[in-house]
Design brief:
This protein has 13 helices and five strands. It is an alpha/beta fold. It has one domain: Rossmann fold (3-Layer(aba) Sandwich). Strands 2-1-3-4-5 form a five-stranded parallel beta sheet, with helices on both faces. Helix 2 packs across helix 13, helix 5 packs across helix 6 and helix 9 packs parallel to helix 11. It is globular, with a radius of gyration of 22 Å.
Amino acid sequence: MEGQRSKVVLARGFLSYCFFLFCVQLLSLATGSIGGKVPAIIVFGDSSVDAGNNNFIPTVARSNFEPYGRDFQGGNPTGRFCNGRIPTDFISEAFRIKPSIPAYLDPKYNISDFASGVTFASAATGYDNATSDVLSVIPLWKQLEFYKAYQKNLRAYLGERAASRTISEALHIMSLGTNDFLENYYTMPRRSSEYTPQQYEDFLVGIAGTFVRQLYGLGARKISLGGLPPMGCLPLERTTNVGGGNECVKRYNDVALEFNGKLKDLTASLNKELPGIRLVFSNPYYMMLHIIRKPAQYGFESTSVACCATGMFEMGYACSRGSMFSCTDASKYVFWDSFHPSEKTNALIADHVVKTVLAEFLKY
């Protein structure tokens, strides 16, 4: 009889545990967040994912002043080119890691903070070293050097085995390329005299492939290779498209589509080449374009003009505190400044990428 009672107690305990797990899953769906074997988010790239590294280097490509960051926690400008959080912050939160990812060069943080997420990104950089030279920012090769130093510190902090496990299970995110075209190829004479647009795309894809192989050689196995947005639809480009009625610049969007296709092919190729790698292509293009074409579906009122200042050409210091005309509610604007999405747009893009692509890393 006593044995029978014990079995009943165990069965009830098991059912209670199952019900608890079911409730946790329901709560996860309700909050829109997910969990899994991703202990850290490690980021490389440009202003789309820079959380303030440029604050600590001699460059004019900065945003550590108002009104940038006015909707960030505490209302403080951090160096993010946004009124609030950037996509990787939302991705980190969705993975139940932390609500924002700190900049590697920010002295407020140390390895205990970076162990669960860090960004080496630098606004105005690109795949091409010539792109980072334009505004003297951190080139991609230097971001890799920072990553190597980070790994050394991580091993000292966690121990060899735990650090290696963190590195192999961490999600490594790459987000760059727009500056290579808009701030370099189509603006500076050097690269356009050396390459056709298609040849320059191939040149950049070659650099991207080399970088992924280098990450792989350093132990990274989960990697997201980011694509380009419809860069011809940025307010800055639309403002200069006077002859085209201030519509999106088609040739820039065509280049973005073509380049994204090559990055997608690179992803397939590297997955075959590198044993054990899980490389995905995160493409923001179509989601971003849908938001721009159907803004009312997402609660936006303005797509061609940004929130900051006149919204036509300002970014960085031109978007400083003294700028007149800045909007009062950035959530009604697809773009925060003439080059960068608003926090609300970043949240929508991140949610789309997590659900359609990055959830792959939570399967097992």
